[in-house]
Amino acid sequence: MPTIHLVDGEKGGVGKSLVTRTMVQYCLDKRIPFVPIETDRSNPDVAGVYKGICQYAVFTEDERQADKADRIFEMAMSKPVIVNLAAQSHRAVKNWIEKNQLLELGTAEGVTFCKWFVSTGGYDSLNLFVQSVNSYGDKILHILVKNFGLCDDWEHVESDPAMQKLLKKHRIQVVDFPKLAYKERNIIDQNRLTFAEARDYKEFGVLGRQRIVHFLKLAYAAFETVGIWYEEVK
User: Fold this and answer.
1) Per residue in 14-45, is it b (16+ CB within 10 Å) or e — as a string?
2) If both were cysteines, with which of 2, 3, 108, 222 could 175 make a disulfide (CB 3.0 to 4.6 Å apart)?
3) What is the 3-state secondary structure (H, E, C) of 164-207?
4) What's the whole-model pTM score?
5) Which domain of life is it from (predicted)?
């Protein structure tokens, strides 16, 4: 069953685009049919890196342009889509889903939704995650992505009774997204390298390239713990 993978975080600077780019490379490496979609107009770095395959869509609260996101669902009817959401797009996305009754339509057309919520572990970030879960309930599968590149200690989340109750109530899976070394990350961003290009980039040297390979190995393993990638796409 094709899935609309919404990579969210609601605020900027939480690592949404890095997670999205890694997810795109995962699908390419695993030969999973998919369509990457960029919706961040102010900072379209996913499209800037994977410009040859990335499509564009727009989420807006302006009713006159509300149909600009429709192609996301239409493309998802044939294969999974990975959507890089802009910051502060929760309300526009929710309006699009509700006004078009996409959850009901998805059931009829065989399309599901999955929200990968990237978090820094900070109070505001976790609060936005809780708001997203409470907003959709069990209607949309949520996955909490712990970004270890921005926070390496998540004990406060694991020991929070309210958070653990929420995760258990909605059967929310939690994945650990690994840290990408700062040097390699900066060079990748500066040169707009795909991860396929980065693995062979001579400037990194043998050890730098190995760090990228190891990062991808850990990230791919984290993605696969969710299990929704294994379904056959016809």
Assistant:
1) bbbbbbbbbbbbbbbeeeeebbbbbbbeeebb
2) 222
3) HHHHHHCCCEEEEECCCCHHHHHHHHHHCCCHHHHCCCHHHHHH
4) 0.93
5) Bacteria
pLDDT tens-place string over residues 183-221: 999 999 999 999 999 999 999 999 999 999 999 999 999
Chain centroid offset of residue 213 CA: 20
- The answer to whether the beta carbons of residues 140 and 3 sit under 8 Å apart is no
Task: State the CB neighbour count (10 A cutoff) for residue 53.
Answer: 13
The pair of three-digit structure tokens given for residue 218, joined into one six-digit string: 């850990």
User: Tell me: the pLDDT tens digits for 114-123?
Assistant: 999 999 999 9
Q: Which strand (E) or helix (H) includes residue 55?
A: strand 55-56
* Residue 170 amino acid letter: H
Looking at CATH, the fold of the domain delimited by 3-224 is given as Rossmann fold (3.40.50)
Report pLDDT digits (tens) over 8-54: 998 888 999 999 999 999 999 999 999 999 998 888 999 999 998 99
Sequence ranges of the domains in the chain: 3-224
DSSP string, 26-52: HHHHTT---EEEE--SS--HHHHHSTT
User: Distance between CA 121 and CA 90 in Å, rounded?
Assistant: 19
- What is the C-alpha separation between 206 and 199, in angstroms, rounded? 10
CA distance 172 to 174: 7
Spatial distance between the Cα atoms of 189 and 187, rounded to a whole number of angstroms: 5
